[in-house]
Amino acid sequence: MQPMVRLSGVGKTFGDTVAVDAVSLDLEPGKFLTILGPSGCGKTTLLRMIAGFIAPSFGHIEVNGSRIEAVPPWRRSIGMVFQKLALFPHLTAFDNVAYPLRMRRFARSGIAERVERYLDLVRLGGLGERRPHELSGGQQQRVAIARALVFEPDILLLDEPLAALDRKLREDMQLEFRRIQRELGVTTINVTHDQREALVMSDEVMVMHDGRLQQAAPPAETYGRPANRFVAGFLGLTNFLDATVIGRQGDRLVVRIGDVTVEGVGEAPEGAHVAAALRAEKLRLVEPGDSGLVTFPAIVTETVFEGDRILYQVRVPALGDAHLQLFDHDPAGHGRHEPGEAVTIGWSPAHLLLFPD
Ligand SMILES: Nc1ncnc2c1ncn2[C@@H]1O[C@H](COP(=O)(O)OP(=O)(O)OP(=O)(O)O)[C@@H](O)[C@H]1O
Ligand SMILES: [Mg+2]
Question: Same domain, yes or no, for 171 and 264?
Answer without folding.
Answer: no
